[in-house]
C-alpha cells in the first residue's frame, strides 16, 4: 500500500516544523535558513543537530538564533551502539515536534530505529543525478567518469544508501575546463536552490509514494 500524504497541511504550523542534521560546513543549512527568512520556504526550523562538535554549520544555526545541539556519535559512554545513538536522535527531534528531518551533509548512516520513526519524512540531498554516483565524493566520481551532465538529487531516505524515492533533480553540465573542485562548486550552488524547494514541496503535501516513485497530484 503506497504511503500517501495527500492532505494540504500548510495551515498547521506544527506540521511545518523541521529538523536539520549536519556534520560539517552547513552551507545547505544556511540556504534553508535564508529561504525561511526570505519567506520562500514556509517552515519552522525547530532544531539543528550535529554529530560532530565545533563544525561551521553550528555557527550558522547560532547566528540565526536556531536551537542547536551536538550528539557526538563517538561518545561511547553515551552511545554504546548505533541503535542507542539513533534512539537519542529520534527522541531529541520528537521532543521538539519535528515532522520532517532534513539531512544536510550528515555523514552518518541511519539505521531502522531512526528510519522507522520518521516514515517518508526524512530528506537527503546528494550531489549527483542518482542512481549514478551514490556514496561519497559523488562530484569527483562524476568528473572522473567523464559524464557530460551531472547534477543534484533530493530524495526520501530509506534503508538503501542514497536509494529512496526521488523528489527533485536538477542537471549541471560538466565543462571541459572543469576540475573536480570547479564542478563541485557549481553543483553546490544548485543544491542551495533545490533543497529549500524540495522541502517546501514535501511540506505542502499533495504527493504520494507509488513504488519507487514520488508523485505529485
Ligand atoms: C553537500 O554536497 C550535500 O549534497 C552532501 O554533503 C554536502 C554537504 O555540504 N550530502 P554542506 O555541509 O551543506 O555545505
Give structural attributes:
three-stranded antiparallel beta sheet; 217 residues; binds 5-O-phosphono-beta-D-ribofuranosylamine; Rossmann fold; alpha/beta; globular; seven-stranded mixed beta sheet; 6 helices
Protein architecture, described:
The chain has 217 residues and is α/β, with parallel strands linked by helices. It has 2 domains: 13-119, 3-Layer(aba) Sandwich (Rossmann fold), CATH 3.40.50; 125-217, Rossmann fold (3-Layer(aba) Sandwich), CATH 3.40.50. The protein is built from 6 helices and 10 strands; from the N terminus they run ββαβαβαβαβαββαββ. It has helices at residues 27-37, 56-63, 82-95, 112-117, 138-145, 180-204; strands spanning 4-5, 17-22, 44-50, 68-70, 100-103, 122-126, 149-156, 166-173, 207-210, 213-216. Strands 4-3-2-5-6-7-8 form a 7-stranded mixed sheet. It has a 3-stranded antiparallel sheet with strand order 1-9-10, with no helix packed on it. Strand 9 (207-210) and strand 10 (213-216) form a beta hairpin. Helix 1 (27-37) packs across helix 6 (180-204). The protein is globular. The chain starts with a strand and ends with a strand. The structure holds 5-O-phosphono-beta-D-ribofuranosylamine. The site of 5-O-phosphono-beta-D-ribofuranosylamine (GRF) has 14 residues, from helix 1, strand 6 and helix 6.
Amino acid at each position: 500500500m503506497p504511503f500517501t500524504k495527500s492532505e494540504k497541511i500548510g495551515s498547521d504550523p506544527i506540521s511545518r516544523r523541521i529538523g536539520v542534521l549536519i556534520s560539517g560546513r552547513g552551507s545547505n543549512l544556511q540556504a534553508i535558513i535564508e529561504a525561511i527568512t526570505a519567506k520562500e520556504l514556509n517552515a519552522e526550523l525547530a532544531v539543528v543537530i550535529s554529530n560532530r562538535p565545533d563544525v561551521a554549520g553550528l555557527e550558522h544555526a547560532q547566528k540565526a538564533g536556531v536551537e542547536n545541539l551536538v550528539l557526538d556519535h563517538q561518545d561511547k559512554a553515551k552511545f554504546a551502539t548505533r541503535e542507542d545513538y539513533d534512539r537519542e536522535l529520534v527522541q531529541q527531534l520528537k521532543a521538539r515536534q519535528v515532522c520532517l528531518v532534513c539531512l544536510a551533509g550528515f555523514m552518518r548512516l541511519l539505521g531502522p530505529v531512526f528510519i522507522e520513526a520518521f516514515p517518508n519524512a526524512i530528506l537527503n540531498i546528494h550531489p549527483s543525478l542518482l542512481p549514478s554516483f551514490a556514496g561519497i565524493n559523488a562530484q569527483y566520481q562524476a568528473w572522473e567518469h567523464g559524464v557530460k551532465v551531472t547534477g543534484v538529487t533530493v530524495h526520501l531516505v530509506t534503508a538503501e544508501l542514497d536509494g529512496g524515492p526521488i523528489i527533485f533533480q536538477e542537471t549541471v553540465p560538466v565543462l571541459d575546463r572543469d576540475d573536480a573542485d570547479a564542478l563541485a562548486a557549481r553543483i553546490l550552488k544548485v543544491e542551495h536552490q533545490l533543497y529549500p524547494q524540495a522541502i517546501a514541496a514535501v511540506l505542502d503535501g499533495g504527493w504520494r509514494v507509488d513504488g519507487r516513485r514520488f508523485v505529485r497530484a
